[in-house]
Amino acid sequence: METAPRETFHDHPVYTLSEIAMSLHRVVERTYPQPYFIKAEILKLNFYPHSGHCYPELVEKEGSAIKAEMRAVIWATNYQRINERFRQITGESLKENISILCLASIEYSPKHGLALHIQDIEPSYTLGEMVKNRNAVIERLKKENVFLHNKNLKMPLLPKRIAVISVETSKGFSDFISTLNKNRYGYKFETELFPSILQGDKAITGITGRLAEIEMRQDQFDCVVIVRGGGGDVGLSCYDDYAMAHSVATFPLPVLTGIGHSTNLSVTDMVAHTYNITPTDVAFALIAYFQKFDEKVVECQTKLVDIAKTILAEEKQKLLELDSIRKIAVPQVLAKQHQVLGNMMQQVTLKSKEMLLTQSNALSKLWDELLRCEQLVVNRESEQLDTCAAQLAMHSSFLLQRQKDKLVGLEEKVQLLHPDHILKRGFSITRFNGKAVTSADQLKPGDELVTKVYEGEVKSIVE
User: Fold this and answer.
1) In whole angstroms, what is the distance from residue 339 CA to residue 346 CA?
2) Do strands 457-461 and 448-452 pair parallel, antiparallel, or not at all (unpaired)?
């Protein structure tokens, strides 16, 4: 059977889209005949529970820029096996924003395009990348000289006011609060919960956001506590994030952590003021500050009692010695002071008489001077009163005459403004229904008007 000749355009052959697609399919099939190990980062997982298939979007980044991007496929049977093994080794399911090493074949479908068909994923590579990233974060914090900043903060003597970042329904939070409130010493703590997601990528923005809220109210708290239950290494990977670790390291209040088990020491734990394994351990650490203070108080009480006893014994001995001296010295001192007092009484009597005589003479002189000054003042004030009375009479007469002239002038003006004077000059007043007409708009044809002139009235009809 002969094939139809190929269509051409300007002497160039024309191909259909499917022909090009099939050609690409054959080229890819010949060029990449076996699977390859490929390292990439999962940008989006795109798992569909109803079918069980997964369609990851893989990227390779250079810094924050995407260097390469490709679509991938994990069929349901492979995804279940791969995810289960990944969970057993890392402690968590496959998720977005993690680096992976996958075994995949490269296929091109004329209908669906180029894709990587993932057959397996190596979990140990992901754990290795996490360790590498964590070491980079640690070095960066050390270069910025903030790695030990929070650890070097001084914890308050009694950390009573506590800001807690956790989930209200989590067992870790419940254990922490229960241990604090039920301590056998009866210490009282004030706690305020700042709820946040505690694992996964959303925990980074959640916890750093809560720290920012607490920082705005830092004067209301003594320290911050971050508590959660244990989890796998991937579950704790958010605590190795630079942004979270930097927020904790540079926080102005001491931060205490209880976010994992002994094998899960994260960067956030390293930079925190105090690292504890579990939420209960955090509570015991806070209680220990109060116990230490109690021990110091008891120690001080004991020292004070001992010092007081020593001082009392020494003072008692001094009193006994002073009492012996008193019995000998007091009679001698009293006799001497009695003699001195007698001499002083004689001197006081003589001096008093002299002073009384001197003051009496001075008072007589002052009395004579006072009488003379009193008469002078009375005469001067009398003259001033006479002058004021004359001036007052003169000014009153002047003011009365001026006000009288003003009244006469006002009376003349009022007479000139009388309506009869106005009418006499040729003006008139037109009324309608007894009211003065001030505008033509008030009238309509047929209205009867009364016009008042100086002598008489005139009636008229409006046309």
Assistant:
1) 11
2) antiparallel
Strands 223-227 and 255-258: parallel
The Cα–Cα gap between 305 and 323 comes to 27
pLDDT tens per residue, range 58-86: 999 887 788 999 999 999 999 999 999 88
Residue 277 near residue 260 (C-beta atoms within 8 A): yes
110 token code pair: 């004329």
Distance between first and last Cα of the chain: 115
Query: Ramachandran region of residue 426, left (φ > 0), alpha (ψ -120 to 50) or beta?
Result: left
> What amino acid occupies position 389?
A
DSSP state letter for 93? -
Taking alpha carbons only, the member of 6, 93, 88, 87 closest to residue 49 is 93
Q: What is the pLDDT of residues 278-321, one digit of tens each?
A: 999 999 999 999 999 999 988 888 889 889 888 988 888 888 88
Question: In terms of Cα–Cα distance, which of 416, 435, 426 is closest to 454?
Answer: 426
HSE toward the beta carbon, residue 207, CA cutoff 13 A: 33
DSSP per position, 162-173: EEEEE-TTSHHH
d(CA 225, CA 243): 18
In this structure, the chain runs to a length of: 463
What does the DSSP 8-state code read for residue 8? E
Burial class of residue 435 (count of CB atoms within 10 Å of its CB; 0-12, 13-18, 19+): exposed
Q: How far is CA 168 from the centre of its chain?
A: 23
Residue 309 Cα distances to 17, 67, 297, 313, angstroms: 106, 81, 18, 6
CA angle 402, 407, 410 (to 5 degrees): 125
Q: b/e map of 87-125 (b: 16 or more CB within 10 Å)?
A: eebbbbebbeebbbbbbbbbbbeeeeeebbbbeebbbee
CB 111 within 8 A of CB 122: no
CA 299 to centroid of chain Cα atoms: 40
